[in-house]
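User: Before I run my own analysis I want an independent prediction to cross-check against. Here's the chain; please return only the structure tokens and, at the end, one sentence I can use as a sanity check.
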Amino acid sequence: MKAGFAETVITPSDGRCYLAGYGGPWSTGVHDDLYASAVYLEEGETRAVLLSFDLIGMNGPLIAKVKAGVSEALGVDDGSIFFTCTHTHEGPEVRRRVRSASGEELDYLDAYEPFLAERAAEVATAAASLARPCEVRVNRAWVDENMNRRFFMPDGTWYFVPSYKDLVPITNQHEDKELGAIYFCPPGDRHPFGVILNYTMHPLTAGNTTSLISADVPGVVRETIREGLGCLTCYITGAAGDNHPKAPEGGFAETRRVGQVLATTAITRWFDSYLLPQPLAIKTMTRSVTLTYRTAEEMQRIPTVGDVSEERMRSYMERIPAPGGDVEVPFSLLAVGPILFIGVPGELVAELGQTLKWYSPFQRTYIMYQATESFGYIAHPNAYLWGGYEAASGQLSPSSVRPLMDAIIDAMEELAR
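Assistant: Structure tokens:
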């Protein structure tokens, strides 16, 4: 097998953008650059490329536009091109062209979208040009740097833990603490020339504390591994829909601390990593399933939404293009030997990500967040009976969750055959 790694800066050239994730503000400068990281893979006649962007997420039309440029540059079919977003909240809003709160036009996108497409094609081409024979080593560790931000009292009263930080020590919902690490090494040489790292945590340690552009934790992870192992890292956020850092809105000192913990763990566990036996087959699949958008009636049945103001309900429904209508929902699968990456169409919660890991016919399975579309939060069915932010802030009907999961599980099993 051959692999190549490359990265490129995707920070807006003038440092001006509307920061996504917290409803603003406009950026006032750059703390650290945003990157697109590319991994090119080749085994026999099969080629694939994985790109991770320091963006909050991308919608389908933008994904298609950027993929088309990569496909043309590499001569690789769209179905073998995989995207994911780290979900930094200190980068440009690219999912919509109008600021929903004020109706303000996000005019920077006229220049930024073609810039992003150009950079993506360039970094994918660079990764392919650097492809070399490799061996693959794997390891994993359990890192206690995330928490589940959903907290409920016995009577169903809901608390959003980041807004009630006294609850952090006792938050008790599901957390996926697995740090997955894949090391690509020259044959016969343990030292990697590239690493793929996966962790399930919203990267917003500095979110809402600054008006500066930043990659947040993923940027520190890449910098620390580059210093420690002398190689590039492709950072992939897992199913972090309800998994948060333990000190959200903690500022850049906390960003550095968490990033260094994750990176140091990856460096430490490189030493006792396991060498996968060759050959390693590369398998790819992109599918879609017909689901439905949620309706106002479904929204009102969610406990913590039914009593909200009319204005808040309207803001929720404005995000849904066609309430009650059908929609094609894409997902993607990339397998490298016994490793599977699943690209999901939004913000999958950790419980669903863990379910896919448990049902996977591949030994090691990792979720790629905000990969194929940006339908908002995708919560597990029971979450809609309790309510909370994740249950309220999605576009898909609660009845769509089971068919989506079934479709992914069926596709995994087909790919494994």
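Sanity check: The mean pLDDT is 95.
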